[in-house]
Amino acid sequence: MSIQARFQLSRGEFDLDVDLQLPAKGVTAIFGPSGCGKTTLLRAVAGLEPQAQGELRVNDQVWQDSRTRLAVHKRPIGYVFQEPSLFEHLSVQKNIEFGLKRSKPDGDKTISLDAAVELLGIGHLLKRQPYQLSGGEQQRVAIARALAVSPQVLLLDEPMAALDDARKQEILPYLENLHQQLDIPLLYVSHSGMKWPVWRTIW
After folding, report:
1. Which residues, 6+ apart, have CB-to-CB distance to 135 below 8 Å?
2. With 70 as the cut, is the pLDDT of residue 122 above it?
3. Number of domains composing the chain
């Protein structure tokens, strides 16, 4: 089982031309300098780049080819951005539950909401508002919300870029937990090379 991604996209002087076969489990780190197409690749996987042509197959399911293009809301992906983008008027629990609106029926869940909360170590934060959280805590909540979708693929677009060194060290163990506990692939974008040997790196 694997992810097969082949995309071509031209935008001004920028050209994205990738042909990748990625494992359907574990973490693949995509790194490189700003502007090289890392985020564009994630957006193409998510269906957010309508001009991207090519093919995308996830575990033998066709998400995109010359005849098929699953709409964004039909692609079972979780997407975590550089900024947590939590709903300020909702509690942590309500923010996470928002992800359930896009989840599959309970019988098809890849991870339960309780498991996501435990995995990210945020059980004690559920009643708090986003403004009461540190940057690292907010990002952990954002990851839990993405997992509530029960994704087949989790996309992480520089989730630590906005954090200082202390907050990065706070969140790193939880990212390792994702790698160890989840039976789904994680595509992790970073502007610098990752040094963890358990992560497969490309780019």
Report:
1. 84, 162, 163, 164, 167
2. yes
3. 1
